[in-house]
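Sequence in, structure out. Go.
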Amino acid sequence: MTVIDRTVFYSPGKIQAAHELQKEEQQAKEATIALKAEEKLQRQLQKEGKRRLVEQRKAQRVQDKLQRQKEAEARKLAAQEAKQAKQAERQLRSNIKQARQLKKSQNNIILGTEEVDLEAVDGAEAQVALKWLLRLHAPSGQKSCQQSCKTVNYSRAC
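Output:
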């Protein structure tokens, strides 16, 4: 560099070196900006990935909850059906027992609904009625002849 009348002259080599230095500084600055932009993009991608994971976990929790509710409903329905089946079986057994008791008791009671006044009939009909009462009640041993006769208002025979 030489100074002639306050004019500064630079050599072409120094000018080119200054340009190259300036280019390198510019490139370094651009590289730093690009690196920062890349880091920012990576952070955004990570943030987006985390957000997706959170949404997936949330959806999975909802799905698991629905599955548990369905299973609980199925268990409740199965228990209710079992209870109803047990109750139906109990009712069936009760009905069978009542039918057996009714059949057994029908063998021991008078089946007619007419009330017979044995005092108004003659002796032959009274004998037939008495035999009929004895046949119904005597085998079971639940009622004696006297009790049977009282049922039909007949007290002379016993």
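Check: Strands lie at 2-4, 7-9. The first helix runs from residue 12 to 106.
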